[in-house]
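Lesson 9: reading folded outputs for more than one chain in a single document. The general rule is that every protein is listed as its sequence immediately followed by its structure tokens, and records are never interleaved. Here is the first one.
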Amino acid sequence: MNTPTPQNRAERFLAALRRAKADRGKMAALRRALSPRNQMDAWPVIADLGGDIQRPVYGIVAALYATHPEESDAANFGVTCRQIGLDGRSDGQLPKSYEHRFRRLIACDTAEELGEHLRAWIRLAASKGATVNYQRLFADLWNWEWYADDIRVRWAAEFWPARHTEEASAKEETAA
């Protein structure tokens, strides 16, 4: 029997979340998954959607999706964080407060710890109209335990993209 990949698990679970999106009662229960006192309210709904309540990633992604179900096909969560940080800025510079917040996010050691920080980022995304690739986020959280350093680098590369060499050359020429 083939073991499903994190991407397969993400696709199936997100498809179930999309089907439940209009059910306000289920979405309210799912939002409780990040609250240690109330997370058990979300467990029956997560299980009904095909999620494994013994794996925290299902509760984390379900709660985040229920908070802000606006999806995208962004490369990873670093793209979403950059969108949030640059919202309303014409200079293309990320505010230091968002850089510090992002550093705290990628410094997390576990998916559970990430969930605490992700909740605030998702609320910011909702307030600023940013979208999230929940399938990629699910896979990244699933793999965090084994590949955290690789995932951190990918998120950081999208949050702080390298300046194009042509732009740098043009600035050097105008300065000379």
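And here is the second record, again sequence then tokens.
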Amino acid sequence: MSPSTPGRLPRRGRGTEALPPCGAFLRFAIAERQKAGTMMDVFYIIPAWLMALILGLLVVATVEGGYRLGCRTSPRASESSRGVFAALVAAVLGLLGLLLAFSFAMAAARYDLRTALVLREANAIGTAYLRTSVVEEPAREQIQGVLRAYVDARIAEAEARSDQTRLPRTTTEVERLQRELWALVGPAVHRAPHAVSLVWVAQALNEVSDLRAERAAAQANHVPETVIWLLGVAAVLTGLLSGYACGTTAHRQVLATSVFAVVVALVVWAILDLDRPQRGLIRVQQQAMRGLRERMQYEGAR
């Protein structure tokens, strides 16, 4: 960013071209998501468990439809093509399994990244807090007080991600605290650019700003909606084919087809829930930030 941008200072060896602050990025991402009107909005409005339930019922319905269609097949025709058809069903089931595995891996990788970034940001803020100990009073106490408030605001911002009415308010508070931090540190760095202690503090605050932007980008990075649609269509068509195979033998295989529908629905639910970091049952926890807040409050009370 340029020196006039409160979010961070320019680093040596890099250009000073202005970059948008991460708070503005958050608001831009929210606005674009609201304008887009894509089906991904539907995926986030409808609870993951409800979507998985609907998919499971659709699979059961297509299995039943495929069974009735298979029952109409001539016994002689089904007998002559049974081996080829069994190989085809096995191939389709294997393909569905691969799609589910790859989609789950995509969602799990995104979840792991979001969790790791929480720890990295907590470590960066803790490092900045410790480095302020070399700053002279009264600036040291002021910077440390703002950093403690910043941690509280970041926790509130993370918890407000599922509430679009609270998120702009918490984002504005975080941006205000960032400006206040740089209002305290920035002028001192410019007055004494060769003071090692101030350079350390400025570098740590730059890292804090960077990680907030990285977390915002990670929160907005979801499994593409095309993949979700592909999973649903593949599961429904596989159910249709499995039911048809059962119909050609005149045996419903209720237990096997029911287990198939339940397993597919559960895996899809897990994929959707992992991809919603602040909603559902599986959430990105903020223990690292809360632990940092407790340590900072303890240090401030000493």
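What the second record shows: The chain is about 75% helix and 0% strand.
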